[in-house]
Amino acid sequence: MDTVSVNKFRDNLKNFVEQVVSQHMPIKITRRAGDDFIVVSADDWEREQETLYILQNSDLMRQIAASMDTHLDGDGYRPTAEEAEEADEIIGV
Predict the structure, then answer these.
(1) How confident is the model at residue 26 (pLDDT cuts 50, 70, 90)?
(2) Is 17 strand, coil or helix?
(3) Are 38 and 26 in contact (CB under 8 A)?
(4) Among the residues of 24-78, which ranges form H helices?
(5) Which residue of 4, 8, 46, 57 is 20 to 30 Å from 31, comparing CA positions?
(6) In whole angstroms, what is the distance from residue 35 CA to residue 28 CA?
(7) pLDDT digit string, tens, across residues 1-25
(8) Gap between the Cα atoms of 56 and 54, Å rounded
């Protein structure tokens, strides 16, 4: 993560915002007389919030662990060829 002063950030706001959005790299902004802060794109913020929600939800984490066990054992659900084709059409493969 890049770190810049609040003055440099302010002077180059447009460039830094474009960098954050296009490269998905947050920037840490430092201030002499206050707490530092982070600039992050809205998409990245939402993705992080979803991840935190899942990690903090013990029921979801148990479901994920059980699903991984099923997958590793080879006992998971296997779609028919027709179902697989339909899924491919939905996701555009």
Answers:
(1) very high
(2) helix
(3) yes
(4) 42-56, 58-73
(5) 46
(6) 11
(7) 899 999 999 999 999 999 999 999 9
(8) 5
- Answer yes or no: do 6 and 27 share one domain: yes
- Residue 77 structural domain: 44-87
Question: Could you tell me if 72 and 48 lie in one domain?
Answer: yes
**Cβ proximity of 29 and 53 under 8 Å:** no
Two tokens, residue 88: 């491919």
What predicted TM-score, i.e. pTM, was given to this entire model? Answer: 0.65
Query: From residue 35, how far is each of 6, 10, 11, 90 by CA, in Å?
Result: 11, 16, 19, 47
Q: How far apart are CA 53 and CA 4, in angstroms?
A: 30
pLDDT digits (tens, 9 = 90+) for 50-86: 999 999 999 999 999 999 998 888 888 888 999 999 9
Q: What is the pLDDT of residue 65?
A: 93
92 lies in some domain = no
Q: What is the CATH number of the domain that holds 32?
A: 3.40.1620.10
**51 and 21, same domain (yes or no):** no
